[in-house]
Each structure stands twice: as C-alpha cells, then as structure tokens.
Fold this protein.
Amino acid sequence: MARIVITYDPSGVQKMLTALSGLRSPDLVQTRLEEGVHRAGRYLLPIVRKTLQEQTNIKPRGVSSRTKGFVPAGMRGVYQIAATGSGVYIAEVQGTKGSKRDSVRWSPRQHWKLQARDSRGRWGQIAGGTEGGVTSDPWGVAHRFKRSFVSAKGRYYAVLPTAKGSKSKGRLLYGPAVWKELVKGATLAVFEAQAPALMQREVEAKLTRLMP
C-alpha cells in the first residue's frame, strides 16, 4: 500500500488560534480546523485520481476502485489518500485489444507444440497468432506484448519462455500498479502543488466563521 497524506502544522495559525480561544471554545476551534483539513482532502481526492488515471492510462473505474480518501482512526487533523492492489489486469488499461485470429485455446501441451524454436534454440511465433497478439497502451504508450494471445475465453495471456524440453507455461498479462504510481510522477507533483493551497483555503474558511 502507498499513501500521500494531508496534515497541518499548527505553528502557521498559532496567532489566529490564540485570538480565537478567547472568543470561542478551544475545542470548537480545533474541530473547525480539522474539518478544514478533511474538506481539503475531499477536494483533492478526485484531482489525484484524475491525474493518476492519466498517468497510467488505466480506465477510471480501475483507479477509483483501488484508491480511497479517509481520516485514519485516532489521527485528528489528518486526511490520507491511499492506493492498494498489485498490477492491474491488462484489460483495465485503455487501448487493450487482441484480434480474434490470434485466439487459440490455452493448454501447456498445445502451446508446447505450437511454439517452435529456430535453429539457435530461440522462441518463434505461436501458430494461429503473432509474435505479439495483444496490444495495449499502459502509461499512454502503445505496446505489443511478446508471445501474447487471447484465450478461447477472451482472457489475455503471454507464454513464458521455458527450458528446452519443458512444457510451456502461460500467465495473465498485467499493467501498472496503482499503489506504486500514486507516489511518483505527475500524481505526486499535483498533490504537492495543490494540497497546501487547498488546505490553507479550507482551514482559513472554517476558522474565519468563528470570528465575531
């Protein structure tokens, strides 16, 4: 799991808190300050998700289902945006496709027969498909996966190279991992650029309402 966190440094508003404490309940002041931080986080969450989606080119639903914004238990004045999960199944990346002519029924025995080697022992093409039967655009970059194909059930696979004389093995194709992408690139940059300004705006708005 990766996290980016909005919190506050009370030193920046100490004078305001001192002035307000003589006018209102200190507990109310603390509550309003925390509300401002949490509101800033809720504004920032969709911005982070949109940037993360553009950064990875994962379909929006794939990003939103793997990210959440919340107030951690027992941590007043903190708002976290967290991402979980491993690499997404490649079908969740925009631009993923595989031609029907590339479709072959998966079985280790069949692919051991279909995946030929050349005179130097290098893997060749799979009969009924191409060197890369599946294409996709992870991170917004067109990519053709080697030794890939669409199974009879419409799932995207790649055949793994194995030692000569062994049965070939297949694995599902995966793209970017949302939790890794959350804390780097454009997503981290937009968080660092907008979180302080949003927090200042929302905290000041909440505290100003307490002024007589």
User: Anything to note?
Assistant: Residues 37 and 199 are 6 Å apart (CA to CA). The two ends are 44 Å apart (CA to CA). Residues 26-56 form the longest helix (31 residues).
